[in-house]
Amino acid sequence: MLAKGKGTNIKTVRPFGLADKLSYMMGDFGCNMSFVLVQSYFMLFYVTVMGISPVHFGIIILITKIWDGINDPLIGALTDYLQPKGGKDKFRPWILWTSAPITIATILMFAYLPGIPYWAKITQCVVTYLIWDICYTCVNVPYGSLQSVITDDAVERAELSRFRTLGAFIVQLAVLAALPKFIFVDKNPVGGRFFLAAIILSVMGFIAFQILYKFSIERIKVIAPEQEVKYNYFRTFAAFFKNRPMMALTISSISTLLLVGSTAVLNQYVFITYYQNPGLLSIGSVISMVPVLVAMIFVKMAVKKFGKKAISSWPILGAALCYLYLLVVPVPNPYVWFGLQGLAALLSGFYTMLTWAMVADCIDYQEWQTGRREEGSIYATYSLFRKFAQGFGASLVAFLLAFTGYNAGLQADQLPGVAENIKFLAALLPLVGNVIIFLAMQLIYNLDNKGLAELKKNLGR
What number of other Cβ atoms are within 10 A of residue 432's Cβ? Predict the structure, then answer.
């Protein structure tokens, strides 16, 4: 058994620098080249283009989401179980080996085969999604775990988290802005263009993964114990719930995805019913992205001055106040609505960008508690709860929307009071979500600057 805090050393290699940050950014760039396409256009392709019944598609999604939840801890456990010997890299090989399979799987998902029988379309939808999902996990879990072994410095981890967010931001901005213009012709989606888009984006993602593999360095190496210890995921899973900062981060992430993230969907209904001007939504999308860029500029300086815990919690209180105003005050001007949401996004942007850096710190914390270095399993378990929150979040919004009295058949002309109910709901959910995040980060998360220094000392670094 490894002695507590003595399971790692840091190999003397190239100092941490811009190459690490840019290469790590390319990891999320590559992941999102596939993920954004699937997240945004999978249903449109198979229901609208391929002609699968929405009911059948809903059943397919329910089944695949179960698999989606299972394979994260499975892959995470494998990365720890197949621990390399002799100080070899633990996560980079996974990225190298699976970058080609995810490229192929993404392309096959959007293969346009309109002439095949209905049962074959169902088969194509189910099988290609399941293959894509496990390929994506085989890249994403090692990539997410990689941050914890590139560096153990708090500011450097914050920089990796910042650049990771930037990689995702670039893809989301470019793909979501350009793809609709490419896929739609005369307001209708064109099947063959999905396939071409999948090829282009997947190849770009593949190139990004090669850059990540080439220029990233695993500096923190695990020293294999003299006596082999049998790997047990359930032991790691139990320790996960004793990991206080990880519990705080898991609670706050669930709240982010389940409640705060509802604004993306509910804003559509607010502008259809309350403002009756859905054309303004495109402006709102841009406004919501600008604060992220502003926060990105100042996050490094803020981490150095105040620490990750402070800037990931206190500004969240300000975001909650923005939504409290939207909740209790009539907001007849849609630009005031956008402006306060943008301010809330700015204030919560520090937390969003530093989430992945804090995950790496929580992995160190569990190593100190258990004496075992199990980055893959811990990250995958955290990812499992995030995916559950994403799935339940979509259901929660749909369920609560029905309670507002919304009638889809009436479109913008809802019964009196319905628009106000939707506006109330769109402010209430993120308000509650931000309060939960603030409380979790302030009362449960215990890795402030002093805690991180003590943790680093206990780990012998």
Answer: 17
